[in-house]
Each structure stands twice: as C-alpha cells, then as structure tokens.
Amino acid sequence: MLEILKNKLISVIKEYPDLKIQVSISNWQTDFLRFFKSQTNYNISKEVENLNAAIYKDKKNYSFYMTSPSEEGFRERLQEAIELIDKLPPDPHFTDIEADLRKGKEVKKESNIAKMPLSRKVEILNQFADAVKPFNFEIYGTFICNHIITYIFNSNGLDKKLEENPFYFEVKAVSSDTEVTVLESYGGENIERFNYKEMIDNLSNKVKLAQNEVIDVVPGDMEVILSPRCIGDLLGMYGWSSLQDYALDRKDTELEGMEGKQVFPEFFTLLDSPNHPDVVNREYNYEGHLMEDLPIFENGVFKNFLVDNYYAHKLKIKENGNTGSYFVMKTGDASLDEMIKSIKKGLYISSLHYVNFINTKETSLTGLTRDGTFLIEDGKITKVVNNLRFTDKITNVINNITAIENKAYVFPSSENYHTFSISASSMPHIKVKNFSISSSTKTV
C-alpha cells in the first residue's frame, strides 16, 4: 500500500534532521486506446509506482527518481545522495523547501478507468466512425483515462494526498478522397459531462463543410475566428513564456513591473482555476502548495505571475503555487453564428500546429493552421483552405479581439508519452482582426 510506504518514508526523513528532504510517491494507472482508420489500433493498460525526491544540505541540492519504490531502495538512494551532495555547488538563493501545511478537501475520486472500460470506448468510437463513413471519411482517435494517487511530504511536516482522475478524448476525421482533416476533442475529470453525441454532431458538421472546394488564400492580415483550441494553445504558450516566475527572474517578460496596470482591453479576463468543474482538478502543485483560483488578468489588468516556493524566496514575492495548467478565459456576449455572419471575408481556424516562438519576451511566434481551416465569405463558411503559416504576437492577438463567444468549451491537452500527462482549460471562440497570415503550405 502506498500510504504504508509513505508513513515509513516519513519516519526515515525524521532520522536526518540536518537535511531538508522533499518527497512525492505516486501510483499511476492508465487505459490508453488508439483508433486508426476507423478500427482499434491498440490498447494499453498500465500501472506504475514511482518516487521523486529532492535533498538539500547547506544550500546544495541532489534529486533522484525511482520506479517501484521501497523503504530499502529509498534508504540506499538517500545514502548515495548524502555521499555526493557535499561535492555539489551551492545555490545561494535557496532558502527552504515548501512549508505550506494547509490542506484541501482531499476527496476520494472514482476512477474513470472503471467508468469507461475498453468496450465502452470502442462503442463510442464506432459511433463516430459510422457518422463520417457516408462521406468517405475515416477516424483516427485517442481515448485516455488516467487515475493517479500521490502523497507529498517533507521535512517541514508537510503531509498531503492528491488524487487525480483525468481523461482525454480526441478524434480526427480524415477524407479518403482529399486528405482534408477535421478534429473534435474533449477532456477534464468529470466524465459525466462528456457529451459525445454532441461531439458527433459537431464533427459531422465539420465533415460536411470539408466536402467543399479546397483553395489557397492570398497572405496578409485577415479577420479570423480562432477556435477554443487555438486560443487555448496560444494562452498556454503565453503562460509558460511570460507569466512564470522564471521568466520574471530572467527578465524575459514584458510584464515585469506591470502588476496592477492595464495591459489588455477590459473584455479580457483570464484565471488559473484548478477548482473549475470543467478542467482537471488538482488541489496541490508538485511541491504540495495548496492551489486556489488565481486571477491572471482581470478586465485587462495584470494581477499575478505564477510563483512557486523557490522563486518566491529568490524574488521576494508572494508564492501562490499555481502552474498555469488550468486556464479559464471569461466568455463574452456573441454567439458563434453571429461572429461568422459578421465577417465579410475571413477565416475560421480550427487548430494550430508546429507553433514555435521567434522571441519569447515579445511573444512573437510562427506556426501552421491544421485540421480544418475554412474560408468565410459574406457571413458563411464556403470553402476549405489549404494549411497556412501565420506569424504574429500573442499580445497582438489578444489586443485585436473584436468579439468573444458567449459559450466556453473544454480544451484538453496530453503528452502522449511516459505518464500521458493530461490537463484542460476552458475557452470560448474569439474573433480577431489583423491576424497575420504569412504564406500557404499548398497542402491540406
């Protein structure tokens, strides 16, 4: 039992009062299904226990990782760390490990792996395949359910339990005739909110639009509608490039000294909300700090960087422990239909791909559109557009928003390797002027 191991390791830590020791141990379970050409490709069910530890002595740090951890193995690795740590250079900025002893609700969560067995996953994916088959499309999908129990404890008396229950569903429909692709996805933690029938309708509507003529467009600044996935990607990149404490430390953010000042228009509000019902809920960060809803921008005013324990001490600013993995953007008052009807000539962009920064401090980046870029003419979606390269600044995109949808959608993301880490954010569609299209790829 993981809890029994935790208690044993806490006793081991107490044997070393001259050290500062931070430990987390986890039991990670996953059920990972891949769908390929409208057929099940493979399914992986896996369970792993692991341990992460950080040892501090005289401002010197040594970290190690273990799979299938045990008390004996931990003692061996700890002894290795003690023998090595004096040879390491000190970090003059280190002050202390996490000391936030506040606890959240620590609610037990029923595993989505049990709620959504393989047979049910295949049944749902078959319904998607049947819906697009008449249009000569095939589906490619990923359906992941994870269940993670983590204990976080340290020399300062921190002793917390974290239970996560995320799922991630993504399905792509690909035309066997033209190779045009369209995409739908959903994720979070509350699988009861997973309305796959609505997703089938949405995907089918996109498939119908994808039957239209495929064209190029002339590069230039265009009026566009960005899907929740697009703005979620851009804000996620903005989070790790400009909103993190390490960006402030490196002076690699234009937000330095801007707390309390108007940065964006009043319509823009962004929270990091780990308690939001539509995202993957997490009570503590990786150090065990209690995370609460944190305003990042409030009516355009910059409120907070994302600050962990180390940088709070180093930069002498208040720790909040938030990570930027739970972004929630405030909705507006326009419907998606109204936004489309308001555009004389522009684009609907479903997804972004291969997005990379040109200059992180300036938030300038470049990337490609993907999985359904459509031409809007006289308020109607009329044609499919070849994938495009865009080059713009995230700050320009936010400043150039002219309408925000009155509805939000869950935008999930997953690292499809190792522990298939899953997060989710809540985003609306947005209408943006002067979005800079730099070229066409000539391909769908």
What's this, in brief?
The chain has 444 residues and is an alpha+beta fold.
How are the SSEs ordered, and which strands pair?
Layout: H1 2-14, E1 20-36, E2 39-57, E3 60-67, H2 71-85, H3 112-115, H4 118-132, E4 137-154, E5 159-164, E6 167-175, E7 181-188, H5 196-209, E8 214-215, E9 220-226, H6 228-243, H7 245-249, E10 270-272, E11 294-298, E12 301-302, H8 309-315, E13 327-329, H9 336-341, E14 345-359, E15 364-377, E16 380-385, E17 388-393, H10 394-399, E18 401-404, E19 409-414, E20 422-427, E21 430-440
Parallel strand pairs: 8-16, 9-14
Antiparallel strand pairs: 1-2, 1-4, 2-3, 4-5, 4-6, 6-7, 9-21, 10-11, 10-13, 11-12, 14-15, 15-16, 15-17, 17-21, 18-21, 19-20
Helix pairs in contact: 4-5
Description of the molecule:
This protein is of the alpha+beta class. Helix content is 23%, strand content 39%. The strands form 4 sheets. Strands 1, 2, 3, 4, 5, 6 and 7 form a 7-stranded antiparallel sheet that branches. α4 (118-132) packs parallel to α5 (196-209). The protein is globular. The mean pLDDT is 96.
Task: Give the tags.
single chain; 444 residues; alpha+beta; PmbA/TldD fold; 2 domains; five-stranded mixed barrel; globular
Cα radius of gyration in angstroms: 24 Å
Q: How many domains is the backbone divided into? A: 2
| Nearest-integer average pLDDT | 96
Number of helices: 10
How much beta, percentage-wise?
Answer: 35-45%
Q: How is the main sheet built?
A: 7 strands, antiparallel
